[in-house]
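sorry for the late reply, my laptop died twice this morning and i had to redo everyting from scratch. anyway the thing you sent over, i finally got around to it. pasting the sequence first so we're on the same page, its 133 residues, then the predicted structure underneath. double check i copied it right bc i was rushing
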Amino acid sequence: MAVTDPIADYLTRIRNAQQARHRVVSIPNSKLKRGITEILYKQGYIHKYAFLGEGKEAVISIAIKYDSETKEPVIRKLGRLSKPGLRMFVSHSELPRIINGLGIAIISTSHGLMTDKEARQQNLGGECLCFVY
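ok and here's the structure:
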């Protein structure tokens, strides 16, 4: 099945797995999704991940992180900023602050994917893909 917005599909699969209290979610693999997954891991939003398979059968297996006391997912909200019908490009001075710096926005720059904080430090703008907090 062809997906018109693979990033929105990625975020929706994680959101649905959290609502169903699943421990692991499998997502079709792509270079962009790999980059987003690595950022989420480095920022502490997911427990761990693995890239499984080769070619068209490749998937990303993500272990969702839950709070040990309340059993609530660590990711409270995640959403898409730039959409296929309306791209959102910003300069380094216009980068969004998610919950006043407590969340992250994932930015696609000329130097690859990075968080809004990293892009601000390097004075880079780009396309705002999604936000997580």
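The chain has a mean pLDDT of 96.
thats about all i looked at so far, will dig more tmrw
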